[in-house]
Amino acid sequence: MSGVRASGAGSRTPPGAPVAPGIHLLPVPTGLPVGDVNVYLIDGERPTLVDCGPRGAAPLAALQAALDAHGVRLADLGLLVVTHPHPDHFGLAAEFVRQSGVAVACLDAGAAVLEDWDAWTLLNDDAVHHGLLRHGVPRELAQSLRADGHSGRAYAESVPVARTLRAGELLTLGDRTFEVLHLPGHSPADTALLDRTAGVLLAGDHLLAAISSNAIVARPFGDVWDGRRPAALLDYRRSLRRTRALEVDLVLGGHGPPVTGHRALIDARLAAHDARADRLLALAGAEPVTAHELAVRLWGQVAVAQAFATLSEVLGHLDLLIERGRLVEDRTAAVIRFRAT
Fold this sequence. Notes:
It comes from Paraconexibacter sp. AEG42_29. The chain is an alpha/beta fold.
């Protein structure tokens, strides 16, 4: 939801051009508001793809054409690495497996989601619907959003995971060695690949040049959940600080141009979080208020049209205020309310 632009964001790279030696950017249309997704082709005897775009005829045709332009057939691919289990990043994976038998790799934390997409989305739909009602979204609107969630499942399908990755392990792709990093926030399984020698980070949606990644409040991955709301923004801020400490010259994100000057961009994102939290505290006033009421005060009708996205944004910043002792949460009633201390 929140967009922060920074001078260190980098410049647009021509489609298919190498963004680093042996790494090519292949933009793939999604048909979604986010626009193109960046797929990365890593050269090697058996080339590697990092992400693949959403399920659909147009993304498939675009990605096949981009691979053809590089003289790469689907059958040539050795590995498809998924940075996180969101449909715009893995939706085509099952089709690629059917056509070529390519091995799919992802972080161990996200493997179950990829392998049973329908089951997880049903669980997540239930959790999101319950959360919307608990945070003051009117029932009719919550039901409408649930129907929209059902339609969104079509952008991906279940895919077998041939290789599960663990944080800290080394992954050899072509003539590069990458360290697998787990940087949760945008999703619980956000994965980045770090080439320390070259100073290159393949970051998925963890750090984007033109927009700040939404720390989505959704059901945690895994079979067991105690019902507590995940503090996605707090997780994301911890991950951003870890990334800030890395010695990298180039961050290749899942959307938009490459990032140079990652520390300045991260500082701007953290400062924007602080500013939005202060704004929400001012909007809260003296009386207890729901998260949805705060979203409407901040965004007006946008908070109705995009109720889940705006609620995720607000809840993340309310968690930040709670952590700082400036807000308390009352969960005793059916609808949760927040009050300034």
